[in-house]
Protein 1
Amino acid sequence: MGPDRALNLLDAMLWNAAIVAGPVLVATLAVGLLVSVFQVATQIQEITLSYVPKIITAMVLLIALGPWMIARLTGFARSLYLTIPTLGG
């Protein structure tokens, strides 16, 4: 396997990881930002007020998008396994 093919596989792996993790990370970031603005506006500095909404958002998105995430990851893994015979030559 040449270096260009290895870099292409690495690039595909990183893009798949970003696409799969992106929705949960962006939603958690948005909820954290909203909670922070709420805390600044009301001057409530409760620690759990910051963590609980983010955890609930992440759980809901993982439950809702879990099948899509698994399908995308298994499709990528399947394509990698199918390219193993072509790597030798």
Protein 2
Amino acid sequence: MKIKFLSEDALQDLRANFDSYKEYYFKQDESWFQSYFNKDGAVLESNIEFTQPKFSFNPDFSVSDCENVKAMYDALKHLTVSQATQERLWTGLAHMQMRDYFFFRLKDDLEKKNEKRLKSALYYVNGTKRSLFVNVLARLWWVGYMTYDETNQENPYWLTEFFCSAEFSGRSVYFFSSNFTGNRTITKGILRALLTLSQEGHDIKRAHFVEAGRYLNISGGAMILDMLEEDEIKEMVEARIRKVFQFEKQLISQ
């Protein structure tokens, strides 16, 4: 099948008249969705072919989020970065061809009538870069894109699985919102370092992701990070976080 996306007029109408339409989302009113998106000019069909992802609907999001990152990226790996930044693409998929996943992942927020989360899940309300990791569909593709390791033929999702192992929503936002993590080489170097430490038995928490980012941000003032190899990033981050663990151990022993 081909990807369908929203016309600019439809996107602006849905955004501008959110208060008028929100009850249809809370009620998951299929008749309204069918009626609205069958209107002339509301939907455009692209030339992008894709196979519908086989999403996991496991209510344990620590399981299904990871599986759905893989499903989304496998299905749409051929998107260009430019295409994958388009709000009309992800908003269109959420309203139409992937509406079942949208309803599944937002089930609790829809039941609670959480308007703020509904808007951020559908539309870019946080600036483009941050919104890519807040939007309920875009974040699946982008986490897949940023963590996929094509050099690992046995399991190219080994870093994805580590990243998604805890705090998927929170990690996605705070880790990928910084400028340097837009570089896949840097991202994979960081994740490889933290995974190595995790496999040694260290408890990797949000603070360690934050510290890795802070350290590289400081280091970026003295060197051009984009010129470093993945292994060099790994070594830098691993050494830094080992010092953090040593400091934490000293505090506990005092």
